[in-house]
Amino acid sequence: MTYEEFRSVMLQKLEDKKNELGYDRVKYYPDGFTSEDQEDLVTIRDTNMRYNKMESDVLSGDFVILYIEAGSTQMCRFTCKGLYRAYEENGWEGVWTEVNSSLAEGKRMAKMDIMELIDRNEYSALKEKIFIRPLNYNDHRYELKQYVYRQIGDIVLVLYLLASDTHNGERHDVSSIKVPKVMMESWGLSEDEIWENAVSSTYMMSPPRMYLNPMDTYKPPYHKGAFMAFNSDIRSLSAMAVPTVTTTTQMNGAIALFYPGVKERIAQLFGDDFCVAFTSVHEARIHKKGTIPPREILMRIKEMNKMLDPSDILTRKVYMYEAASKEFRQLEL
């Protein structure tokens, strides 16, 4: 059976087996699919980042999604080619084994809240809820002793668990807790692997954005400023540009500077090294090297920090990225 024949038969079988296997509906997303429907766009973007490590509103690959309960967003997602490989190896039995395994885990997850997941302390169940937040080290140094973090200058990137995330269009409310070292150690994985997965999850929760005009940060459409996305319209930066770098949610958006490839991309856009002024935990402003003295940037940071709630202060220093060495460091001024 060819892949195309398999895909057609499989989709019909999945429709026929809804009651038998216990899910509410089937949705097929073909390679190259895009949509103006917001629910579809969210699915496309999340799927591209999760499976293809890229940000795009055009789907790459054929996917089928089984929604577990009516009105629920709890889903099981499969690559059609992955299921085809299972078919080639073990026939339809191999396909249903893979589908049933994923459904069982999805149904189990749907019945548990975050506190139950934490009590069970199963990394496989918590993995997609682990993310990273930036904090100021000096302001949090004592409370951080028992938690997992990495330090760059006076900035720390801290491992968190997402307890809840609600967004009503006006207010974004996130509830989270720091990951204790003892919890991470009990997972039996290397810190590097857990950290890498957390970076990926954070990127998927809040992709990076670059806004060339400060006014662009006010309720921008999702696609605006997607400078890391495939076919982005941001292809270079003028020497005097001072872009704002944050994330789609703009909450704790300074984390965007620590995503893989972001600093390298900014250096490419400028064609040079650059200085970073973290104006809060939520954003950073970028200056091409040589356009403004670092001491003047530092004075502006100090003035900005005076107006901030102390919890929003990320740093009291200026940072520099050097493209040749790929070094990101705090400047001593």
Structural account:
The protein is α+β, with helices and mostly antiparallel strands and 333 residues long. 37% of the residues lie in helices and 23% in strands. It contains eleven helices and 13 strands. It has helices at 3-16, 18-21, 38-52, 80-110, 114-120, 123-126, 137-140, 181-186, 191-205, 262-270, 294-307, and strands at 25-29, 63-67, 75-79, 130-136, 149-152, 155-167, 172-178, 208-211, 244-247, 274-280, 283-288, 318-322, 327-331. Strands 8-9-11-10-12-13 form a six-stranded antiparallel sheet, with helices on both faces. The chain is globular, with a radius of gyration of 22 Å. The protein starts with a helix and ends with a strand.
List the helices and strands and how they pair.
Blueprint: H1 3-16, H2 18-21, E1 25-29, H3 38-52, E2 63-67, E3 75-79, H4 80-110, H5 114-120, H6 123-126, E4 130-136, H7 137-140, E5 149-152, E6 155-167, E7 172-178, H8 181-186, H9 191-205, E8 208-211, E9 244-247, H10 262-270, E10 274-280, E11 283-288, H11 294-307, E12 318-322, E13 327-331
Antiparallel strand pairs: 1-2, 2-3, 4-6, 5-6, 6-7, 8-9, 9-11, 10-11, 10-12, 12-13
